[in-house]
Design a protein that fits this description.
By secondary structure, the protein is mainly beta. It has three domains: 122 residues, no CATH class; 160 residues, no CATH class; 127 residues, Jelly Rolls. It contains three helices and 32 strands. The strands form seven sheets. Strands 1, 2, 3, 4, 5, 6, 7, 8 and 9 form a nine-stranded mixed β-sheet that branches. Strands 22, 23, 26, 29, 31 and 32 form a six-stranded antiparallel β-sheet that branches. A five-stranded antiparallel β-sheet has the order 19-16-15-20-21, with no helix packed on it. α1 packs across α2. The relative contact order is 0.10.
Amino acid sequence: MMRRIIAAALFALAAVNPALAQFADQATFGTGGGAANAQQVTINNVTSLADLQGVLFKYVPTATNTGAATLQVVSNSGSIGSATAIRKLTGAGLAALTGGEVVSALPVVMMYDGTYFDIMSPTSDTIGARMLGNSALGSSPVNLQLSAAAGSNNLVLSILTAAGGTPSSSTPVLIPFRDTTLGNGDPVVVSVQAATTFTITATNTMGCTSAVLCRLWLVAFNNAGTAVLCAINANASGTSITTINENVLQTSQSGTSGGSTAQLYYCGASALSSKAVRILGYVEATETTGNWGSVTAIQLFGPGIKRPGDVVQVVTSTSTTTSTTTNTSTVAALSPAVTLSITPSAIPNLVRATMYGTMQAGVAVGQISLARTTTPIGVLNELSSGTIAPVMLFVLDAPATTSSTAYNLYGRSNSAATLTWAPSTITTGWWFQLEEIMGALDEPANDNGEPLGMVG
């Protein structure tokens, strides 16, 4: 029965358009030719483009398109119709080619819809920028490598392919951004198909301190469909950290060669305003008196990589041990020592130390503070003589090291009277916590005893 129905349909089709029935009833294969953006296919026995309407045909191109392209059908009777635009399927519908969709020596399947030739086989765009942009994979850049090189006192930052080459139409780097309409939750994927660099020239320090390792975060701005490479030193004054917020539109500074102020975006294009951004990663480098020297680390951003201000690791200790001091000169370590150590994972990161417990002063005023190793840091907490009270100590420190660093409790009394930490009359003991904070340190360790800024 089914055979009869198919046969009847083909008979009716042949009666209306014999040529169309001929091509619809066979695996139509043509011979490719022409040029990159002026493709050609030879299909014998075609008398008009109408013969191919709705028909799937395939051919092997002899050139790769570099932009919008057309297709000329040739038959054994000569050229058929005129060169007709080729379209591709995108997340926003059918659109003109942009480059790399028709690849030399790679078979392609097309269909004539009466006006255009539509590519029906997968293209670099349909399986890359658009489809990935509407899938879970669209949350991270695809085929991305970051490069940073110091030379002639400049720092050259570049977007490369994963293989280390220059992006092109056939090997693009795909970067997803948020929609510039804040009320929309869709991804907008930008395809980087050309060299994309940002050179920070000598004398532009980006707010880093001379001869001290500095972390620059690399960010892409979506400038009307073009990805612009930018950088920001997220840290200022050692311990003030700004966040990089991809949820809001950002603005960069004027100029295209960097600047000397921390916590501001500088880009390879001047003064971009209200643009969607995407964090690409960070570079750790050193500049000396305005001249960029060595690059020590490059890190792509992705799952497991912390943003500025995020907690990298936490070390915690509790105890009910009572410690004392009768020191009357400068603050000194209590006995037995109240101490906790942490090993920072990177020099630019900060350490937030928090201590909670109970302090008891003798017949004199008592003072207590935190110290990094033997250097008191933060603010002295003072308790009147003869009193007992809970104490919270907090400090954000810049140790500028990747070695194990001890944080201790120091104290003193204004007379020989004993200052007691966690007195036995209080059974709650004490709690000590160290947190490594992802930062962009640009100055040496703070050792001046002054209070430090909080993460902002």
